[in-house]
Amino acid sequence: MSIRGELTELDVPGLMQLIATHGKTGTLVVQDPDDHEVHVLFESGDIVGAEVPERGESHRVGELLVKAEVLAPEDLEWALKEQKSRGIRLGDLLVADGKIDRQDLADILRVQIYETVFRIFTWKQGKFEFRAGPPEFERGLVGPIPTDHLLMDSFRMVDEWPQIKKWVPSFDRIVEKTEIGEKVRRPLTPRGSDPGNGLTEAEWLMLDLATHHLSVQRAIYRSRIGEFEACKALKGLQEKGLVRLVVAGEALTKRLVVGQRRIWNPGAALAALNVLLILAMLITAAALLTPALAGSGRGRALELMLGPDDQGLSAAIVDGRARAVGEALALYRAEHGRYPDDLTPLTEDGLVSRFDLGLTERRYRYAGPASGALVPSEPMH
Asked: How far apart are CA 58 and CA 61, in angstroms?
């Protein structure tokens, strides 16, 4: 069977159902009006892979492994070069050399299949072509996915996603546990005996990740269960009152205030109240800043919040964000083959937030694409 046509005549779900019904083996190529292509691989009517050729599949899988924090950026850079000389698939190379676990690779590939198919599921315009013949894919890692199962999951995602978005409005938000969430442990007693019982595995996973105060985007990558399932779990946890999503500046401020409370004089209650009021005013002012001013404004706000006696803590926080920016630069180079001309592409690719860059630039400057280094600038004062 070899077919081609327009998506206005036959949509993606209909195409996939047709291929599954006839038990065909081959590659479904779907192209949008801007000529972006997605390939869905079939074997005997089941889905065995999904790719975005223009990204380069090795780069895409490697990028996901790095973002899931199971592969170091430098190991990806090495593997992409080594792959060319050995002539094998990236995943096989990384597993054979002990860089990653086989199950980690399988998890990433399965998420990639689901999210790639979901990406084209609602396309209404464009072209399609089914090319018969055995496709190339990572055999033995992800078992064939029944097409009707994936279609049902995709329909469910389309139906539920608008409601989930109301609970997860931005992937830049920080996931943190509530006071109740801090007390919840995986149950060892019968169901219903404490607030933690009845959570799904995805909710348990995201609740564990909330301990690390990650952004929603970073928590999704580390979960390795995919964007939809991770966000659905966050919605459920918020409904149960176990986590909340806060903007980056507010999350940092809260942790700093909690840390300072441990050393405050108990008799200085009035002074503490004044400090909290000032913090609230600073947060409100930061929220009103334009995006162009967000980086430097928040960096300066951090210094004001800490005060002159806590600049060591301020420097430590900035150094920590600078390390995150350094890792993002390494990942960008592994993905694009070069360092960026400036740091802006790091935020555009979702590797770091503008808040991270704002803090980093208080103590460091970017040396440029030649070295990709962050070098110390004038000290914070």
From this structure: 5
Q: Where are the alpha helices (DSSP H) in the chain?
A: 12-21, 57-67, 73-86, 90-96, 102-120, 147-167, 179-183, 201-209, 216-223, 227-239, 248-261, 269-288, 291-306, 311-336, 344-348, 354-360
Q: Of all residues in the chain, what percent carry a pLDDT higher than 70?
A: 75
- What letter would DSSP give residue 145? B
Q: Is residue 381 part of a domain?
A: no
Q: Among 246, 273, 304, which residue terminates a domain?
A: 246
Residue in the structure block whose two tokens are 């995150």: 324
Exposed, middle or buried by CB within 10 Å (0-12, 13-18, 19+), for 71? buried
pTM: 0.60
CATH of the domain at 219: 1.10.10.10
Reading the block at residue 113, the tokens are 């299949």
Q: Are residues 53 and 199 in the same domain?
A: no
- Radius of gyration over every alpha carbon of the chain, rounded to an integer in angstroms: 24
pLDDT in tens, 63-97: 888 888 888 888 888 888 888 788 778 888 888 88
237 with 253, same domain?
no
User: Max alpha carbon distance in the chain (Å)?
Assistant: 82
Residue 364 belongs to domain spanning: 248-376
Overall domain count for the chain: 3
* Beta carbons within 10 angstroms of residue 358's beta carbon: 24
Of 246, 278, 300, the one marking the end of a domain is 246
Which H or E element spans position 365?
A: strand 364-366
Whether 286 is covered by a domain: the verdict is yes
How do 364-366 and 243-246 pair as beta strands? unpaired
Instruction: Determine contact, residues 374/366, Cβ cutoff 8 Å.
Output: yes
Q: Do 79 and 188 fall into the same domain?
A: no
pLDDT class of 273 with cuts at 50, 70, 90: very low
> Tokens in use for 315?
């420097």
- Using CA atoms, how far apart are residues 188 and 237, in angstroms rounded to an integer? 20
My answer on whether 238 and 268 are in the same domain is no
Q: Are residues 109 and 93 in the same domain?
A: yes
Structure tokens belonging to residue 100:
């990653």
Closest CA to 60 of 111, 135, 131, 136: 111
